[in-house]
Amino acid sequence: MTREKTALNDIPRDRLTGPLRRGAVKKHVAAIHISGKLTLLQRKLSNVLLLNAYDTLTSQTRHQIDARTLCLMIGYNSNDIETLKLALRGLAETVAEWDMLDSEGQQEWGVSALLSFARLKGGVCEYAYSPALAEKLHDPKVFALINLNIQRRFTSGHALALYENCYRFVRTGSTGWWPIELFRRLMGVADSPYYDEFKHLNAKIIKPAVAEVNKTSNIVVTPEFRKMGRAVTDVRFLISENPQLAILDLDDGEGHRNSDIYARLRGLGVSDRLARQWIREHGETVMGKRLDFVAAQGDVRNPVGYLTRVLRDDGSEVSPRNQAPAAAPVLSDRARRLERIRDLAAARTPTQRDADRRLFLARLEGAARDDFEKHGWMSALNVKAIAAFWEEVSPGAFDGLPEE
């Protein structure tokens, strides 16, 4: 992926992150850790918040996501807002500390709360990061991004912490050696005397966490230990890709990056996220035909904008330059309603769009579900249900349009 975007991972600000390797720098350049332990809910929450804010981390000071989407994306199907408040408070009270080399090779130390601000109001969660932490979180050479589809499968905070701290090393095949003291901090058990004894750490933390990572995620980890005398002093994890990944259907669009259609879209100037979204929504065959159509128009002033119009109009022949059609067609009531739905969906953030689809799919079954999975919000079998859903999401969305 262009900048390792599988759903926000590694220390999405939460939790400490052990030795990191930065680009071509072949040495230990960073150690990021937190002042306290994060629960499984808090870890998942911090990852979703980071993914939602990632594209505007350094350009916006505050970020928003609706609470329903937030709960869905962390697999928290509850209306217990008090628990969500406690989780947000925990992130605001947890300190992240980093000690790393900057781009010029100078040592940099810093500390910041994981969240500098959080508020729940009107069903919306608004939150912010400190500028310094936002800069670190946005650096793809320091942080890897975790696939949220995988994250939601975890039931243990220790397993998720192990996954986050191993996943960024998947390309190198090993985490490198971690002192046992550092590993205990990474797992959030440094303050528990019980885990000072390695046999307890191995039986209660390492073995169960390794088993869940290997069963649940897209990587397989194997622990190795180094001893001094009879005492275990260091641990490392060998990492390989999980061959069950395709069966588990955990891909959030990563596979599309290997296709020729994706390469053509990127070559045209389409963003990574939009390219994957279009391939997912329209399929490679349709996208190939639309790209061929655009290419046949010759020197189009704004090829991405023109392709957007072609997709919007379902491939009908659109004027490639600035010529307007001789006469604008009169849209039917249904077409106007579908156009409104398309605009509503397009206005949502990528995280929200994913949550919207999941929420609506949960209401469907049989042929209706199949049709929606194929055609999305333009599904003819689900017109009324889709309209009702968007009216719930955005009350008054269809004001001014005739009833169907």
UniProtKB/TrEMBL annotation:
Pfam families for the chain: Rep3_C (PF21205), Rep3_N (PF01051)
Q: Which GO terms describe its biological process?
A: DNA replication initiation
Q: Which family does it belong to?
A: Belongs to the initiator RepB protein family.
According to UniProt, the name of this protein is RepB family plasmid replication initiator protein
Q: Which InterPro entries match?
A: Initiator_Rep_WH1, WH-like_DNA-bd_sf, WH_DNA-bd_sf
Q: Which domain of life is it from?
A: Bacteria
Gene3D superfamilies xref list: Winged helix-like DNA-binding domain superfamily/Winged helix DNA-binding domain (1.10.10.10)
Give the species: Falsigemmobacter intermedius
Q: Name one GO molecular function term.
A: DNA-directed DNA polymerase activity
- Domain Initiator Rep protein WH1 stretches: 25-166
| SUPFAM superfamilies, A to Z | Winged helix' DNA-binding domain
